[in-house]
Amino acid sequence: MDIAATQDEATCDIARAAPDPAIVVRGLVKRYGEVTAVAGIDFNVRRGSFTALLGGNGAGKTTTIAILLGLIRPTAGAIRILGEDFAHSAKRVLARMNFQSPYADLPRRLSVRQNLTVYARLYGVAKPAVQIERLAHELDLQGLLDRPLGELSAGQRTRAGLAKAFINRPELVLLDEPTASLDPDTADWVRGFLARYAAEAQATFFIASHNMLEVERLCDSVLMMRSGRIVDSGAPKELIARYGRTTLEDVFLDVARFGPREAT
What we know:
By secondary structure, this protein is of the alpha/beta class. The protein has ten helices and ten strands. Strand 1 (23-32) and strand 2 (35-45) form a beta hairpin.
């Protein structure tokens, strides 16, 4: 395969796409030797939406998100984020984004305040102390700011990670299991915070999660991934109706075990 030609074709496809999407992916491929982790996927993420990327272990979700964050270089394909070609403007685009995962912990010897101050400086946040206090209030971290991260519970660390993800007032937020380790009440409160932020900042959220109830409640669009490919997509209610199921979890199990439902 002529990878350069494939990337040029994908870039042309993006140029023809509507300018509105927050993320446009065309022909995205990632290979590790003989193993194909991502097998030529195309998708759009509408601005202002909550879009979920779902799939079982090994489906390619983590690789896709890592590529969107610039952590992994794709083998082929093109990406446009917030109206810019990611391959040529990654630094500028990443300044307008942020990411949170409970599996990518902050330094545990630093206090919550110290961690947030470091990231505020990295993002060039004006008046970082003011922004940290605002986020501490919104995420119920006031009494934890000066405690070392390593002394906090898993749920408290998740909230500190969320504060880091919003330190630069991002336009696009990528979240991996955003309410992991949170009790149901706190998880519901965090979902409310995400919805309020989306409305106030007109932000876009791209979420990987295994919490299907959360996806049903929060997301208006779902991408189903299996064996490195996007095999189905739609609103949660549309997918539930298409598969004749009662919950998105049942749809997830169908796709993970048997593949997508053929159109009738």
